[in-house]
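SAMPLE LOG
Freezer: B-3
Tube label: C17
Construct: single chain, 88 aa
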Amino acid sequence: MILFDPVDDLLACYSADTLAELQLVQRLSRAAGAFDAVLCTHFAHGGKGAIELGEAVLKASSLSNSFTFLYDLNVRKMPICSKVFLTL
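STRUCTURE (predicted):
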């Protein structure tokens, strides 16, 4: 999951990932301008493994930002493929 303005990165951790690899991705994400990069183990630990992510999202969402929707939410007939294309 990546949130822009500010950027917040989620790192889904798997059993084969080493701590050194995860810390490298965290460091590089933050150096590239991410608000935070948190380790998430929700696949292995359910909701408890996503608590730090929730806290980071709350912090990031409390900052001022320039969020706008990519398409008009009032357009009901817009096909999903068009909505997906707009996000690429």
